[in-house]
Known about the structure:
Layout lengths: L1 H24 L17 E2 L3 E6 L3 E5 L4 E6 L5 E7 L2 E6 L3 E9 L3 E10 L2 H11 L5 E6 L2 E8 L2 H11 L5 E8 L9 E12 H6 L15 E5 L4 H11 L3 E5 L2 E5 L4 E14 L5 E18 L5 E20 L2 E10 L2 E5 L4 E5 L3 E10 L14 E19 L11
Parallel strand pairs: 1-8, 2-8, 10-11
Antiparallel strand pairs: 3-6, 4-7, 5-6, 7-8, 9-10, 12-14, 12-15, 12-23, 13-21, 16-17, 17-18, 18-19, 18-20, 21-23, 22-23
Amino acid sequence: MKNRFHNSLPLASLLALWLATFAQAQQKEEPQGFALPEAGVKSVMPAVQVEMEMNEQRVLSWPFDVTRVFLADDSLLKLEPVTPSKLRLRALKSGKTRVNVWGQGGNTQTYEVLIHAPIAELKKVFKEEFADQEVTVRQLAGSVLLSGNVKTAELRENLESVAKQFFPRVINNLKLIRNPDVEPEPVKLRASIFEISHYDLAKHSLKWPLGKSKTGQMQHQVLSTHGEVADFLQAAYDKKVLRKIATPLISTVEGRRASFETGGQLPLVVAAGRTEGKVRMQQWGVRMQVLPTRLINGKLRLGVQPRINQIDVTKAVRLDSVTLPGIRTHQHDLLIDLAEGESLMLYGMPMDRVIREKENLPLLSDLPLLGESFYKTNRIDDQVELFIIIAPEQTPGEKVASSP
């Protein structure tokens, strides 16, 4: 009996040490920097994805003894030590969490755990709450696939929201049923294209509020009726430093793509050989396609694809005795939602220009009749900003966009 007692003592001590270490490892806050054993990392294995169903149990084992464990969310998963090299996972509820395991010799392993509810429970809820909807629910590994036809986008979002309570990953393949008898509503958009000179801004003590633009990078932002940018534009307009290029009105219907184009054409030299070139016509100006869609929250969603070709004298090419300018192209593709009173502003297409100003010469410029012949010319390097504002206009009998 004495020998048996002494033989079992190391095992009891080992299990006590493991339980104490495990209790300290299950903490809410991750150790700073993921501190590893002093021996360093012997091998870092890629994250392993584990998919489980609620109330399911699974045992993980390693070829090394575990020294520390971290659980990101203990409300989803419970960890139970089995041996120093085995750990039991017990799934509590649907969700996604992470488990980090450190072992002797510097070994470490990360597990991404996805927990879902039984598919039968989700089908039961759909049958009780959405009995009039023909929705097919199918489980794909740890994900759920929703398919079928629904009448509104709101119902589509509700079904997906319910499914996410049972499965952390939802593939929403529900399609909206369009009513062919309903006429699409009209949409009107006003596109205003402006230029503004930084030299003119400095003369009127106006500060450009959008930061320095980067050549070749078109940017955008949602513009409200009030705010720093709106106040700046109003001040620039009042001081007459805004140069209006065009203000096309786009009239279309919801779901129908519309486009507009401003500018013209100029000759462009393209290579035709080592020492030869040929001339073709190149479009310059603004070309834009817009696709409007009304959302159930009252906002107007715009799919916008602008293409801006600017004349760039730095890319000029000389052909025989004629110098032809080059073209700089900006393209963008974005999807933006606008509420009532909001508009879309595109900017970030600066052009370098040179201003030559006449300056009178003292005394000589004051001479009668001949004074106008005496002056000097100052060269001023300027940068001109091009920006486009697209604003919904109110349609007869109804607002294009309303606040949610």
